[in-house]
Amino acid sequence: MGEKYKIELLPDSKTCYRYLQAGFSIIVLTFLVGLLALAVPNLIPIYDVMVMPALFVGLGLLLYGVGTHLHIMHLNMLEMREEDGSHK
Fold it and tell me: Which chain regions cross the lipid bilayer (predicted)?
């Protein structure tokens, strides 16, 4: 039953962790640039423009990574079930 639900775009579970790492890295990098902007007042206008899109992309990647992880877990559960609904 699980074979018809498989997607070739997600061959392994490392894909979702890459999205999670990228999203978390963008959020941490935005925070560090914010600390740099406090030290150099000339960077504050640039930081104000860039903070919302960067956080939006970072949170979007985190959400996509969590959704991908849940999708892979669901596919694994489908593979563990027999056609008649019993477990292996």
Answer: 20-44, 50-72
Q: What is the pLDDT of residue 85?
A: 64
CA gap 17, 37 in Å, rounded:
30
Q: Which of 10-14, 32-36, 77-81 has the highest mean pLDDT?
A: 32-36
Q: Where are the alpha helices (DSSP H) in the chain?
A: 14-39, 44-80
Cα–Cα distance for residue pair 20/65, rounded to 1 Å:
5
- 41 CB burial (10 A radius; 0-12, 13-18, 19+): exposed
Tell me the pLDDT of the chain averaged across its residues. 80
Which pLDDT does position 87 carry in this prediction? 62
Cα angle at 62 between 57 and 12, to 5 degrees?
Answer: 120
The position carrying tokens 């000339």 is: 42
